[in-house]
């Protein structure tokens, strides 16, 4: 019926435009208390004594809790809720209170007396790796984050370098970056006095992970915890661990007091405690023949995990798979691992290591091209993955379209890359202080979770007797439009108008755990589950319609709410009538579609195996103007193209691309969480700079569609790929404009002027 590949309005647009959408901070329950947390002012210290007696006397205060008051035994989850003997970063919580109003809660925090013994800390990757360095966590010898080391071994790098005519070695750096979502974290925990269960409403990205945090904090079973997602004001990976902690704390105080407890972070609290994009130190050695064929690639990629391990073991697997970019290289040696420090912890953020790794790897490609005296585009053309190529992890790409070069050529043509490169060269010959440049970057990204963990999830479709269709997923709409994409998929399969689809937000009591909403798997994996459920329902409805029309089910089709026989148009029945016929016969039109991915074998010691069932491909071209007297960089234009398989909703896809450009621009030029001995110096938007509408350049999005064999209606991932190449393309453009390479992000005024990497202090 053609509901797919159309820019239909979002199914949640009306409630958001009219202000009817309820965010967690909007919720109110009778008798509700307000919770607050006291955090350590030290990055590393021993807790000598905590005295909460004065805090408990503050009028309106109902509970004041320390680690000794937590109901659950200590575990990986619970030791993060409240520090007991030692604080390891300035976000560590040492006490929490619940009071009648926020002012009383704040007064109680000020009345708590904590005596600390400050301890020395570890604040850089280099300090963490020094022989005999202070151990941030007892269970992490050498400060290496547990299970974070992922190697890749292919061929023989020594042989590859011996056969290379040109060899270069480089180091690049990226900093901690804040998610900067509009809505700070918020949650309300509501206890049930009858059965002892608890319901938590919150701005949660991953409800089932949050449920585990709450159950661990309470020392209760998962079945006693219900998480209901509220409208989310942005996440980008940030509302995972921090929301688990907030919901767990609120739940403990709610159960202690027997009253609902609401917690809402200020912007400063959000900055201090929420996870950040992992900083990376990226060290490379690469060798190629004189004609540009890459023979060997060696890399050591070290990311900063911070005080606690938050997903480095998973993120680094993805980093090792994509470490060498979308190129075929016969000899590879890669080691990726993370280290602990006494800084804020690194966690999931849009791209999950790829923006950092691509910045380093695509900068390296431009530097290799320069060393070879070769055009950077030609170098990429010569080495790009093609159909039948073998990746660095040993996966042969012979069962899917491989569109590195088609996407690259389409973007280069749209950007008029070569003509503009010549134009900017002439501009720069004028000798003025303002110089222009153009740069590009390409990438590939595995869709879904791949061999990292089982990429299983479910979709729920329930047809009512009036023909309306309720759909639910275990994956969340974080603002990216997942609910609309799922609605379009189900409407297309059933042949009903989109207005008939009713999307319900995630409730952990109504859907089985389908994993986290990460890895751009909302459409790619969640959409497959929705399609499977819709097909099960359609099979039943078509059987009923066939009985009414005296024909076979396989002869039927459906469109716009009508089921008909294409060979005999007179044979038709409304979708609603067929549904009622089925329900009258006792059929159920409620179905769960459950996607179980194929096994992807992986050999950890060598990093060899089939990493992902399919990949998507991207190319970004950026054009900049640099003031060489001030170091100011203005991004003039960005052309961003992506192989999306099939665009379920082109408008939503373009929105992802535009948002990715803005976020990538911030990463490239301005965003950095500034730290001094573990203390965040810029914990609000008056000092942490993000792009505004005045910074956003002219943007052009390109969607290359292909016949992907795995995704629903051939759809692939886009949410994270939209950002991944942007910073690399911008920095390559700056280098083209100035003739000097910035190897440490952000490429701010000082770094652009100096033209060299400046390590974070």
Structural account:
- The protein is an alpha+beta fold and 761 residues long.
- The protein is 29% helix and 26% strand.
- It contains 21 helices and 32 strands.
- The strands form 9 sheets. Strands 3-5-1-12-9-10-11 form a 7-stranded mixed sheet, sandwiched between helices.
- Strand 10 (198-202), helix 6 and strand 11 form a beta-alpha-beta unit.
- Helix 6 (207-218) crosses helix 7 (241-257), helix 14 packs parallel to helix 16 and helix 18 (650-669) crosses helix 20 (726-738).
- The longest helix has 24 residues, at 526-549.
- The protein is globular, with a radius of gyration of 27 Å.
Supply database-style keywords.
32 strands, five-stranded mixed beta sheet, globular, 21 helices, seven-stranded mixed beta sheet, 761 residues, alpha+beta, disordered C terminus, 29% helix
The global form is globular
Broad structural category: alpha+beta
Question: Count of DSSP E strands?
Answer: 32
Radius of gyration: 27 Å
How helical, in percent, are the residues? Answer: 25-40%
**Unreliable stretches covering 5 or more consecutive residues:** 756-761
Mean pLDDT: 95
Main beta-sheet strand count, sense and barrel state: 7 strands, mixed
Q: What is the first-to-last residue Cα distance?
A: 59 Å
């Amino acid at each position: 019926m053609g509901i797919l590949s159309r820019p239909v309005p979002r199914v949640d647009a009306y409630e958001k435009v009219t202000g009817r959408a309820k965010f967690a901070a909007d919720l109110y329950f009778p008798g509700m208390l307000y919770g607050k947390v006291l955090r350590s002012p030290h990055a590393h210290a021993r807790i000598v004594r905590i005295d909460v007696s004065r805090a408990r006397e503050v009028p309106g205060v109902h509970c004041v809790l320390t680690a000794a008051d937590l109901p659950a035994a200590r575990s990986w989850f619970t030791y993060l809720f409240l520090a007991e003997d030692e604080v390891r970063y300035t976000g560590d919580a040492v006490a929490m209170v619940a009071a009648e109003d926020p002012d009383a809660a704040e007064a109680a925090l000020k009345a708590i007396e904590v005596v600390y013994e400050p301890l020395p800390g570890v604040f850089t990757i280099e300090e963490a790796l020094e022989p005999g360095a202070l151990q941030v966590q007892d269970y992490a010898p050498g400060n290496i984050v547990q299970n974070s080391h992922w190697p890749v071994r292919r061929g023989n790098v020594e042989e590859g370098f011996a056969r290379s005519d040109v060899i270069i070695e480089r180091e690049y750096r990226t900093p901690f970056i804040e998610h900067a979502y509009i809505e700070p974290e918020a949650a309300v925990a509501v206890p049930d006095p009858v059965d002892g269960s608890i319901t938590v409403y919150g701005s949660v990205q991953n409800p089932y992970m949050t449920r585990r945090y709450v159950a661990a904090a309470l020392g209760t079973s998962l079945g006693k915890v219900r998480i209901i997602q509220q409208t989310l004001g942005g996440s980008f990976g940030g509302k995972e661990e921090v929301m688990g902690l907030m919901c767990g704390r609120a739940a403990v105080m709610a159960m202690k007091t027997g009253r609902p407890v609401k917690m809402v972070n200020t912007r400063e609290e959000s900055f201090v405690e929420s996870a950040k994009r992992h900083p990376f130190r990226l060290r490379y050695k690469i060798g190629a023949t004189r004609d540009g064929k890459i023979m060997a690639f060696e890399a050591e990629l070290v990311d900063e995990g911070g005080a606690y391990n938050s997903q480095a073991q998973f993120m680094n697997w993805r980093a090792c798979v994509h470490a060498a970019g979308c190129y075929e290289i016969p000899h590879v040696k890669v080691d990726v691992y993370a280290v602990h420090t006494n800084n804020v912890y690194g966690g999931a953020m849009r791209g999950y290591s790829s923006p950092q790794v691509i910045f380093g790897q695509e900068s390296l490609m431009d530097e290799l091209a320069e060393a070879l005296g070769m055009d950077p585009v030609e170098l990429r053309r010569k080495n790009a993955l093609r159909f039948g190529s073998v990746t660095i992890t040993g996966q042969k790409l012979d069962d899917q379209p491989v569109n590195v070069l088609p996407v690259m050529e389409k973007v280069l043509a749209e950007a008029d890359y070569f003509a503009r490169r010549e134009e900017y060269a002439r501009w720069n010959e004028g000798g003025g202080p303002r110089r222009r440049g153009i740069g590009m970057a390409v990438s590939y990204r595995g869709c879904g979770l791949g061999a990292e963990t089982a990429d299983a999830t479910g979709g729920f479709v329930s047809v009512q007797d009036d023909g309306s269709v309720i759909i639910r997923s275990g994956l969340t709409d974080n603002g990216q439009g997942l609910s609309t994409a799922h609605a379009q998929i189900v409407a297309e399969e059933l042949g009903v108008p989109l207005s008939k689809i009713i999307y319900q937000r995630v409730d952990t009591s109504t859907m089985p755990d389908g994993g986290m909403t990460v890895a751009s798997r909302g459409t790619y994996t969640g959409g497959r589950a929705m399609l499977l459920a819709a097909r099960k329902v359609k099979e039943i409805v078509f059987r009923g319609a066939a009985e009414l029309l005296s024909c076979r089910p396989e002869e039927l089709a459906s469109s716009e709410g009508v089921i008909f026989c294409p060979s005999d148009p007179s044979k038709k029945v409304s979708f609603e009538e067929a549904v009622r016929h089925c329900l009258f016969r006792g059929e159920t039109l409620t179905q769960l579609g459950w996607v179980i991915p194929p096994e992807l074998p992986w050999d950890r010691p060598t990093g060899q195996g089939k990493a992902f069932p399919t990949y998507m491909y991207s190319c970004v071209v950026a054009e900049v103007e640099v003031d060489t007297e001030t170091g100011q960089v203005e991004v003039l234009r960005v052309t961003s193209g992506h192989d999306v398989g099939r665009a379920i909703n082109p408008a939503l896809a373009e929105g992802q691309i535009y948002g990715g450009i803005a976020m990538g621009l911030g990463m490239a030029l301005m965003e950095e969480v500034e730290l001094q001995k573990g203390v965040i110096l810029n914990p609000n938007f008056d000092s942490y700079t993000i792009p505004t509408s005045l910074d956003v350049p002219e943007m052009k999005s390109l969607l290359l569609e292909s016949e992907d064999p795995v995704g629903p209606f051939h759809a692939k991932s886009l949410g994270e790929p939209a950002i991944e190449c942007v910073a690399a393309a911008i920095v390559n453009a700056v280098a083209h404009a100035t003739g000097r390479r910035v190897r440490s992000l952000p490429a701010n005024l000082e770094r652009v002027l100096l033209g060299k990497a400046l390590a974070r202090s």
